[in-house]
């Protein structure tokens, strides 16, 4: 694989990862906390409606998990394409 093909494949893999993470982020922040809140509020977690919980607490936990997921997967992509740091 040429250097240019390797760079294009690396960028493509990076964009796929970012696209997936942004989709999860949008579903959690807008979907669970705003759009689906009325449906989720039929359930409770810790005494609070689930839609409210996602808007106030759950989304933060998901976002932190996304940061760790991104770091792990980006490290894997870097190693696969030989651009990782020692």
Automatic annotation (TrEMBL):
It comes from Tepidicella xavieri. It comes from the Bacteria. The chain crosses the membrane at residues 21-40, 52-71. Signal peptide: none annotated. Residues 7-84 form the Sodium symporter small subunit domain. This is Putative solute:sodium symporter small subunit. Keywords: Membrane, Transmembrane, Transmembrane helix. The lineage of its organism: Bacteria, Pseudomonadati, Pseudomonadota, Betaproteobacteria, Burkholderiales. NCBIfam families: Na_symport_sm (TIGR03647).
